[in-house]
Recover the amino acids of this structure.
């Protein structure tokens, strides 16, 4: 879901095998145009009854307003919510809906960014299930707070088991933007026993920071993901706080972990905590020719990289030119799904294996491939169990994801091609990126 000039909100529903679920709006997707200008969806939550709640913003001609909408499970607007399923709220200036949570009593919590006349701060809004502001929360359903008299921009929120609310984002502090976390009671009152009077900040590195996501561990510790500038480029950044808002000294260095994969802009968009306590993050690393690739990285619970995952803890996938991994979701102990987009327009949903030794993009059984011999020295044969449309391209990359060579291929049979390696290729572990019009594969090969 994205916004721009004349952009709309897109909601797509897929079956477990990745095909469109045609029970949703007859097509598997719905395009929502609230106003004939910019419409953006920032966060989505599912109700227990299958209804879909989306928060974001719309442009009213002069500035931005919060928008909130609810769809039935079949893709139609829920006419019992707001005005024909939609709410547009103006708090007096410029506001953006940033995150949405469904509460246990079916009320809806919205975290918003707002301009207070001198800087940006944040507001919490609680709605009844019918879309009316809950007057028992904050002041007439809205709780606003400016902790630092400077910019405080929220990006994510979470409701804790006791009903309290945690908000994370980045805030201006001493000339830099830094990580922040703020905690509120279930009725929207700032909790002074968290951090410094309800507000905790962490500065990662020596440059500006940015925050994108939040996840709460089973022990109550708080994981915040985003990026930290190192010079002119950014690195992946994770911060872990204790439940009271202090940095967790058992995580990384003083509660902070940064990871620089390649020279370029790299950042974390989402976090998934596994049952074993390991931390899986998805986001973006700079790809070849300055383009961005899906990035998936796994950490041990203490913040060190789990080298048993992928290649030294990292999996990257190149779907085209600019690819952004936005969200990660576990679907079983051995598989997870990453959602994102490519080139700013194409929605991507990719399913990966999650085993100890590797994590590869899972292809449909009909399009499985076989690579042999492996280990090898000078060439490999690639067998496609079903021939697709168009030519097959084969790119060889090293374990750091850097391009080694675009391999030349010859057709041996209808479903078998042979790819030749460059001469004097050093021994080691490499990855074949095999692409046909409708298929993308990654295969590890050992060169001896």
């Amino acid at each position: 879901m994205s916004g721009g000039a004349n952009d709309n909100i897109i909601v797509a529903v897929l079956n477990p095998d990745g095909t469109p679920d045609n029970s949703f709006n007859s097509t598997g997707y719905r395009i929502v145009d609230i106003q004939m200008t910019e419409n953006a969806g920032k966060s989505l939550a599912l109700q227990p009854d299958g209804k879909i709640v989306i928060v974001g913003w719309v442009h009213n001609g002069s500035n931005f307003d919060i928008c909130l909408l609810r769809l039935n499970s079949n893709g139609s607007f829920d006419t019992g919510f707001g005005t024909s399923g939609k709410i547009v709220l103006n708090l007096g200036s410029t506001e953006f809906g940033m995150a949405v949570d469904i509460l246990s009593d079916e009320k809806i919590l919205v975290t918003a960014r707002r301009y207070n006349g001198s800087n940006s701060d944040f507001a919490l809004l609680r709605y009844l299930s019918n879309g009316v502001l809950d007057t028992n929360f904050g002041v007439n359903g809205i709780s606003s707070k400016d902790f630092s008299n400077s910019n405080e921009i929220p990006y994510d929120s979470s409701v804790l088991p006791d009903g309290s609310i945690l908000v994370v984002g980045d805030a201006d502090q001493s000339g830099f933007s830094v990580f922040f976390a703020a905690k509120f009671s279930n009725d929207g009152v700032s909790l002074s026993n968290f951090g410094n009077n309800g507000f905790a900040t962490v500065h990662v590195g020596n440059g500006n920071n940015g925050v994108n996501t939040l996840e709460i561990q089973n022990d109550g510790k708080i994981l915040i993901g985003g990026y930290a500038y190192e010079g002119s480029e950014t690195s992946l950044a994770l911060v872990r706080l204790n439940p009271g808002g202090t940095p967790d000294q058992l995580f990384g260095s003083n509660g902070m972990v940064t990871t620089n994969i390649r020279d370029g802009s790299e950042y974390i968009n989402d976090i998934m905590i596994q049952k074993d306590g390991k931390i899986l993050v998805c986001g973006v690393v700079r790809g070849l020719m300055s383009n961005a690739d899906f990035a998936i990285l796994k950490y041990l619970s203490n913040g060190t990289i789990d080298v048993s995952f992928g290649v030294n803890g990292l999996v990257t996938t190149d779907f085209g030119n600019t690819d952004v991994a936005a969200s990660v979701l576990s679907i079983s102990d051995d598989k997870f799904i990453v959602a994102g987009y490519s080139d700013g327009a194409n929605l991507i949903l990719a399913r990966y294996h999650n085993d100890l030794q590797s994590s590869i993009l899972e292809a449909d059984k009909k399009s499985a491939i076989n690579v042999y011999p492996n280990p090898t020295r000078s060439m490999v044969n690639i067998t496609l169990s079903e021939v697709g449309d168009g030519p097959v391209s084969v790119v060889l990359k090293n374990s750091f994801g850097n391009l080694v060579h675009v391999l030349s291929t010859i057709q041996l049979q209808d479903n078998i091609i042979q790819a030749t390696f460059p001469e004097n290729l050093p021994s080691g572990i490499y990855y074949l990126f095999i692409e046909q019009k409708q298929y993308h594969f990654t295969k590890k090969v050992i060169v001896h």
User: Anything to note?
Assistant: The mean pLDDT is 88.
